[in-house]
Amino acid sequence: MAPALSVAAHLRVDGISHSFADRRVLTGISFTLPGGERAGLIGENGSGKSTLLRIIAGLASADAGSVSAVLPGGRAARIGLLHQEPPFSPDDTVLQALESAVAPVRAAAAALEQSAAAMAASPGDVAASDAFSAALELTERLGTWDIDSHISSMCSGFGLSDLDLEGTTGALSGGQLSRLSLLWVLLSAPDVLLLDEPTNHLDDAATAHLRTVLAAWPGPVLIASHDRSFLDDSLTSLIDLDPSPMPQAFARSLVGDGDGSGIGTTRFSGSYTGYLQARLDSREHWERRYTDEQAELKRLRASVRENQGVGHANWKPRSEVRAMAKFSSDRNAKVVSRRVNDSRSRLDELQAQQIRKPPRELCFSGLNAAGSTAGSGRSFSGPVLAAAAVAVDGRLPASSLSVAAGEKWLITGPHGSGKSTLLDLLAGRLAPDAGSVNAPASLRIGLLAQDVELPDPRERGPGRTVLRAYTDLVGERLASEVPLRLFGLVAGRDENRPVATLSVGQQRRLALAILLADPPDVLLLDEPTNHLSLVLATMLEAAIPDYPGAVVVASHDRWLRRGWTGRRLELSDAAGGR
């Protein structure tokens, strides 16, 4: 069920630029979103998607540019943003959080009652009548009459009906907290809706409910997401912040623009599937155009040099008449000058307009890029990792799984079924309340958890750089033998940045590189496509079958599940795994 808004807002973003102390993230970002449009904001990790959403929402300031969000008639529109921080206090009860979301609706109902009483007390008062009409229009627009049933249906749609209304939000699990935050933003019924990775903690049912809500949303919707299926099924257009062609002179004028993510935008109307091919075609065209321009520049520069002596420099007129000799000399000079000027003019024009060189794109080298055979599992026979009827009270019903060397497993199930808990048990990070996990003593197991974990064993503090963190966590010897740049996960320009300044996606890339520096026999990946760029998620998925060791993936990613060719284990709330 969507909010009862009937008046659509209009969002305009004009020339937004933003820099941090060490780098520029956004330059000249411009686009418009009319009511009813659902646009996906995509780009590499660190390209400024979350920053742009915060600027549009008024939570961060741009260095340049403007944002305009208005309703018909010029009234300012309300903007709602789902981002990493919950919009309520951890000390609030669930009921208090829900009521704070619908506070504007409750206030509109109270204002209507007051205006109705004022109009009844002063029949014929034009001002009182106008106030009542305005209050009535607002309550109808906000869906005041159906708000309680709306809250109930939304809680059900996002799997939150069973929450203890008197319990504090701080006691909720990470997934519950994320879904409650999304529910809060939707219930607040903003005129412009901004969502940052809304599906990261949604199962199939909740994702389907969100698609239904957004399909009926009257105002502009802008969503930063790496969920490929969601982009394919739910959005009307895509706004790409990845590098795009631009005049080289402009690119050189930018300070710290790195590879150029977040410089301008590329707009694509269509599905993500169609966008993939369009993106490849665009990149190929850019590279071809750059190559052709450089060849033409080389030719023109040579022409300018050669034309300095073009004409008849050594030619002597047959006539010894002095006037004729002077005329011939002047004509020769004019020919040379015209040719030189023409070539220089074309050269200057092309140099001013030439596009910049396409920046090298990060290309994931694969799960076994380190080249180690440690993950091959060849020294093991039979199951290398077995969970027998393992259970954790309140988190995982009795479930069993037997993983052989080199096998690829996908664990699926709704939220609350225990996917992450099962991976924690397999990794030895959690002890079961019942059942057992068995593995050879020499088996090496590696886990990429949902929450980024980058310990600071040497207590280097917030200034610890990416390269320093990698070296500390894999060891000096291994960092030298298997350099970070080998994996194609972290851009060279980011290696000396403090870890604390990285986006969540960039931190997850670093965690993956640390895990793969010495490939384990069994690789456990918990929601591996969360927070990763669309391109990397696709590359990572394609690399799984080629990993020599066993891989166990827990994921709700419909795109990944659709193409999975390995074995599957489905968990459910009631019966556990099968």
TrEMBL record:
Q: Cite the GO molecular-function annotations of the record.
A: ATP binding; ATP hydrolysis activity
Presence of the UniProt keyword ATP-binding in the record: yes
Domain of life, per lineage: Bacteria
Ranges annotated as spanning the membrane: none
Keywords from the named record:
ATP-binding, Nucleotide-binding, Repeat
Q: Which Pfam families match?
A: ABC_tran
Can you give the residue ranges of the ABC transporter domain? 11-268, 380-578
Query: What is the protein name stated in its UniProt record?
Result: Macrolide transport system ATP-binding/permease protein
What InterPro entries does its record include?
A: AAA+_ATPase, ABC_transporter-like_ATP-bd, ABC_transporter-like_CS, ABCF, P-loop_NTPase
